[in-house]
Write a structure and sequence with these properties.
Rossmann fold; five-stranded parallel beta sheet; 36 helices; 11 strands; P-loop_NTPase; TPR-like_helical_dom_sf; TPR repeat; Tetratricopeptide repeat protein; ADP binding
Length: about 850
């Protein structure tokens, strides 16, 4: 490279803004040959140690010139510049002389960092630092109700608590019967004091009385951490809670925990910051949270005057003044419950010419006029108002009200409603909006991350709708509505699986009928985002399927969720899904499903360090595959039905042998991680031979990759190089970039062990680029650790420390054991 052009320098600087491998390579480029001041200036810019466009007040063009000069003297950086430049996309920008300027763009064609506009490095340089794309501050609290009254005293008390200086987090428990307005009070407060919590407002429905069962603290903590910017989170409650305390240690956030079942459910979700506020709503008193310093605010029913005021705000003062006695009767019949008043008011608002006396008579005939109604959590006081509101719904809207209550998910949106009601999504949107208009659904809003506008039933309203469905809809219609929801989630998850892990998409899918909706994504980013957003509802549907006897749907949904487990590593869900799926596949007698659940579930067990359990699952999978293969070959009596064929079929036997190889591969990987290297090598060689025999080329490459890893662990780097070079080429031929990057990383480590250090760094940096592009944080951390090991082995302590620090930072949110290991490595290096 005779000179560094604008295109090359722009590529390097822009790429470095987002790519750890590039930053490290640029640091390497100004190594021992550069003077100390140059090193300091470049290091400050690359590592972000200065907020200026240049480090220590230096103009950015000086830094650019230093980097350009270093690239001329360093062949590794020159090669990287050339490689990165080939990935440049032209954005249409122009140079000062009117020519076209190229800018490197990655990840949705976004330009971050510094952009250079210059003909070459000998001309004038103009660097324009671009603002970093910041994570949006979460604002998850649903809007407070438009009509809210009778709680001035409670609001004032809670506002004083929220704004008071303190040395410990503030916690308040708002308790009371269903429908009394606990959530409305909390939302109203947070609307007033949002300015005191600039770092975020978080909301979780703990589903204390939900038919789906209460939310698990691990589920909610993972959602909170992702909302605050943690891309990867651990799976165990202890590690999640520790990370939550760390992330919120100084955060000025408010958290609303709605409908808590118990103090034990809420406690792990309390943030650690003394500037944080947590509001917990519950039908129970949750006195156990007193140990956490909670203040308790029990909420009573509204008095008659405030009930009348709320009614007046909803239907208009003129109607109340026109029929004052009827209005008072309506307010009294609602038992002081805001929910009942709002439902009755929505009914009357929809009938502006109907006298209030008609509703008063209906409530008087059917309702209970005393607080005795609250003995069953307010249900009786609300039921009559709901009955009257339901009675006037158009038939199509009444049907939607009933059927939507049967959906096995707590949060509804247009795609789910379309599946439940068997209508197009546009019609489903109208149904949801109309039900919200008459206060039969609560609108939760929607965001760029959550997708369509979402809704939910108040649990008393849902119970009312379910009772109606049980009496007005025949069992076959109720079953069909639930089956359509299962179909929707199974089909959409399978579409994501097809995009993200096509080699895994081999087993059958059974649907109750045609699936008409198209998936809301068409690329990898959209698919993984949908899986991430929907993980809670996917698990709710999976549990419902198994509990309602839809066993085929249960194991098939667990299978379709594989890319979620592989890419995002929600281990608790991974293990639960496969335990449910395995039991379901065995109940239905599907041998292919059983084998898949055993190998995929065994992988989850292995990745969590539960090696003995993982070995048992893989051994069961191996035994089942061999039995089925023998039966298909006619070596034993009887027949065995497979998901895709019949016993004796040669294709079925090939599938069984492929599953046998997969089980052997899992046994090898588990043995490798458990440190049993001879057993691991034996299993991998058996798997490789089987895969070669049936022509499974990608599987052959994966087994070869693992043999290279075992050779590395056994201190045989030259042998490892042979395996890994071949595996890398084979995986590229199979267009498997992710696993090819794994082979490249291990190959770089093998090169370092044989003394080929420059080649080792090139391969490791290239692998790091790939893992950064695919979002695999764990492998990013692993490669950075390998780079640190290589630097330490050649005596470059400073570089080793920098890379271990980056590795530790990436491990921290995803793996506590790995984080501790990196901390040990850093202690071994000593102080700088």
């Amino acid at each position: 490279m005779d000179q560094v052009t604008e295109r090359q320098l722009t590529a390097a600087l822009t790429y470095a803004a987002d790519r750890p491998a590039a930053r490290l390579s640029l640091l390497d480029a100004v190594g021992s040959d550069a003077d100390a001041r140059a090193q300091q200036r470049v290091r400050a810019w690359v590592l972000g140690e200065s907020g200026e466009s240049g480090a220590a007040g230096e103009p950015a063009p000086v830094l650019a010139a230093l980097l350009a000069e270093a690239s001329l003297a360093d062949p590794v950086l020159a090669e990287n510049l050339s490689r990165w430049t080939t990935r440049t996309l032209t954005t249409g920008a122009t140079t000062p002389d009117g020519g076209e300027a190229s800018r490197n763009t990655f990840d949705a064609t976004r330009v971050d960092g510094v952009v250079v506009q210059a003909r070459n490095i000998s001309g004038g340089l103009h660097l324009h630092p671009a603002a970093e794309a910041a994570e949006p501050v979460p604002r998850q609290i649903p809007a407070p109700p438009a009509h809210f009254t009778g709680r001035d005293h409670e609001l004032a008390e809670l506002e004083r608590l929220a704004r008071a200086p303190r040395q410990a987090p503030a916690v308040a428990v708002i308790s009371g019967p269903a429908g009394v307005g606990k959530s409305a009070l909390a939302r109203g407060l947070l609307g007033k004091v949002a300015d005191a919590f600039p770092d975020g407002l978080l909301h979780a429905d703990l589903r204390g009385r939900s038919p789906e069962g209460p939310a698990r603290p691990t589920e909610i903590l993972a959602e909170f951490l992702r909302a605050l910017g943690c891309r990867q989170v651990p799976y165990e409650l202890r590690e999640l809670a520790a990370l939550w305390r760390t992330v919120t240690a100084e955060a000025r956030i408010a958290v609303l925990l709605d409908d808590a079942l118990s103090a034990a459910q809420a406690r792990p979700l309390l943030p650690a910051s003394p500037t944080a506020l947590t509001l917990v709503t519950s039908r129970g008193r949750l006195t156990g949270l007193g140990l956490d310093g909670a203040a308790f605010r029990p909420l009573g029913v509204l008095d008659a005057a405030h009930s009348l005021e709320l009614l007046s705000r909803r239907i208009g003062e003129s109607r109340v003044h026109g029929e004052p006695e009827a209005a008072r009767s309506v307010a009294t019949a609602c038992g002081g419950l805001p929910l009942a008043v709002c439902v009755a008011a929505a009914h009357m608002a929809a009938r502006p010419r109907q006298p209030l006396a008609a509703m008063a008579r209906a409530l008087g005939e059917n309702g209970q006029h005393t607080l005795d109604a609250l003995r069953v959590e307010g249900e009786s006081a609300v039921r009559t108002a709901l009955d009257e509101s339901y009675r006037l719904l158009p038939p199509a809207l009444g049907r939607a009200y009933r059927l939507l209550s049967l959906a096995p998910v707590g949060v509804l949106d247009a795609p789910v409603a379309a599946a439940v009601c068997a209508v197009p999504p546009e019609a489903a949107e109208r149904l949801l909006d109309d039900l919200a208009e008459v206060s039969l659904l609560d609108e939760l809003g929607g965001t760029a991350h959550s997708g369509p506008v979402r809704y939910r039933f108040h649990d008393l309203v849902r119970a009312h709708a379910r009772r109606l469905a049980g009496t007005e809809d025949p069992p076959e219609e109720r079953d069909a509505a639930a089956a359509r929801v299962l179909d929707h989630y199974l089909a959409t998850a399978t579409a994501a699986e097809q995009i993200l892990t096509p080699s895994h998409r081999t087993l059958r899918r059974d649907y109750s009928g045609p699936v008409r909706q198209q998936p809301p994504f068409d690329d990898e980013q959209g698919a993984i985002q949908w899986l991430d957003t929907e993980r809670g509802r996917l698990m709710a549907v999976l549990r419902f399927a198994a509990g309602s006897g839809a066993d085929d749907a249960a194991w098939q949904l667990a299978d379709a969720m594989w890319p979620l487990f592989l890419r995002l590593r929600p281990y608790e869900l991974w293990l639960e899904a496969h335990e449910i799926g395995l039991a379901a596949a065995r109940r239905t007698g599907d041998r292919a499903g059983e084998r898949r659940m055993l190998t995929s579930g065994g992988t989850g067990l292995r990745n969590t360090g539960r090696y003995d359990e993982a070995l048992r699952w893989f051994e069961e999978a191996l035994r089942a595959a061999r039995e089925d293969s023998a039966e298909a070959a006619g070596d034993s009596t009887g027949t065995a039905e497979d998901s895709t064929g019949t016993a004796g079929d040669a294709a079925a036997r090939a599938r069984h042998r492929r599953d046998e190889a997969q089980a052997l591969h899992g046994l090898g990987q588990t043995s490798r991680l458990a440190g049993r290297l001879p057993e691991a090598e034996r299993y991998f060689r058996e798997a490789l031979a089987l895969r070669a025999d049936i022509g499974y080329h990608r599987g052959v490459a994966l087994s070869r990759l693992c043999l290279g890893d075992v050779a590395l662990a056994a201190g045989q780097p030259e042998q490892a190089v042979g395996h890994l070079e071949r595996a890398h080429g084979e995986l590229l031929a199979e267009q498997d970039r992710y696993d090819a990057a794994r082979a490249l990383a291990l190959l770089g480590r093998a090169y370092a062990r044989t003394g080929r250090h420059a080649e080792a760094d090139r391969q490791l940096l290239a692998a790091l680029d790939e893992f950064t592009a695919t979002g695999s944080v764990h492998w990013q951390a692993h490669v950075l650790e390998m780079l640190g090991e290589a630097a330490a082995e050649r005596g470059d302590t400073e570089r080793a420390r920098a890379r271990y620090e980056e590795s530790r930072a990436r491990y921290a949110p995803v793996s506590e054991p790995d984080t501790r290991r990196l901390e040990d490595r850093l202690r071994t290096l000593g102080n700088p």
